[in-house]
Amino acid sequence: MTKVCVVTGASSGIGAETVRLFRLQGYQVFMGARREERIRKLAEETGATGLRLDVADSASVRSFVRELPETVHVLVNNAGGALGLEPVTETSEEAWLSMYQSNVLGTVRMIREVFPRLSRSQDGSHVVNVGSIAAIETYLGGAGYTGVKHALRALTETLRLEWLGLPIRVTEVDPGLVETEFSIVRFGGDTRKAAKVYEGMDPLVARDVAQAILWSVTRPPHVNIDQMVIRPRDQARADKVHRRTGN
Ligand code: NAP
């Protein structure tokens, strides 16, 4: 039987690579994000089914989930990201609310709506939440983002308690610096500022994280990978990065 995988935030970066890798493994993939044109192109490229999805909007999540097959084997909650890098005293409430909406409540909405379909799988199912090293560390200007990823970690761990005895595995994949559109979004479209984040160092690429997601899902059914922290070799902590300067 073909297994079904659902990926949120598939219009770029880690989500798009996850779609590609699961398709290569023969999964039937359903993916969503807000930028429909991107999703349409990736659907053409991979044969996955692309649908508009805004995880910050309950109605959008419900209509996305209505289009899914009755049984879902893998749910990858990847949609999210950071907004801003200001100190707490200068931070915008709007940015915090938006980060909470996509990273935390978006994940809760997806899990709540997909749960009946995950429960129908005879061979067990798997939820993978894409967290961050921001789930286990803090850094200057990062209170909003580290706050939401810490909350996501609490959610992941609580699910593992609440689902104990059910055949549903729960994994959190926590990457360090990955060069995607993440920093462009964080800095409101400022590509020069975004490029500085990765200057002089070798960041992870989206495929590194997608491979970790796939690896955790393809372990034997009795094995639960709780948490995977993956950093570039050039990064020791969120704020401790080795950069090569000059030639
Ligand atoms: P990215 O290239 O900016 O991708 C983010 C994806 O999330 C996009 O497809 C975006 O699609 C989607 N998204 C954001 N808000 C959404 C919403 N409300 N509804 C549906 N989709 C939404 O960045 P990325 O690095 O691949 O990020 C993926 C995940 O990895 C995020 O959870 C991020 O926090 C995490 N992460 C990234 C890094 C890093 O350094 N890059 C490190 C650790 C963790 P639309 O805008 O089209 O909706």
Protein architecture, described:
The chain is an alpha/beta fold. The protein has one domain: NAD(P)-binding Rossmann-like Domain (Rossmann fold, 3-Layer(aba) Sandwich). Helix content is 42%, strand content 17%. The chain is built from eight helices and nine strands. The strands form two sheets. The chain has a seven-stranded parallel sheet with strand order 3-2-1-4-5-6-7, with helices on both faces. Strand 8 and strand 9 form a beta hairpin. The longest helix is centred in the middle third of the chain and has 27 residues. The N and C termini lie far apart (54 Å). 41% of the residues are buried. The mean pLDDT is 97. The structure holds NADP nicotinamide-adenine-dinucleotide phosphate (NAP). The site of NADP nicotinamide-adenine-dinucleotide phosphate has 32 residues, from helix 1, helix 4 and helix 6. NADP nicotinamide-adenine-dinucleotide phosphate binds next to helix 1, helix 4 and helix 6.
Tell me, rounded to a whole number, the average pLDDT. Answer: 97
Strand fraction: 15-25%
CATH class annotation: Alpha Beta
The termini sit apart by 54 Å
CATH topology: Rossmann fold
Kindly report the name of the CATH homologous superfamily. Answer: NAD(P)-binding Rossmann-like Domain
Number of strands: 9
Multimeric state of these chains? Answer: single chain
**Small molecules in complex:** NADP nicotinamide-adenine-dinucleotide phosphate
Count of DSSP H/I helices: 8
**Total domain count:** 1
Sketch the topology as an H/E string, one letter per element. Answer: EHEHEHEHEHEHHHEEE
- Tertiary shape: globular
Radius of gyration: 17 Å
Question: Which CATH architecture?
Answer: 3-Layer(aba) Sandwich
* Poorly predicted spans: none
Largest sheet descriptor = 7 strands, parallel
Strand order of the largest sheet: 3-2-1-4-5-6-7
Percent of residues in helical segments? 40-55%
Structural class category:
alpha/beta
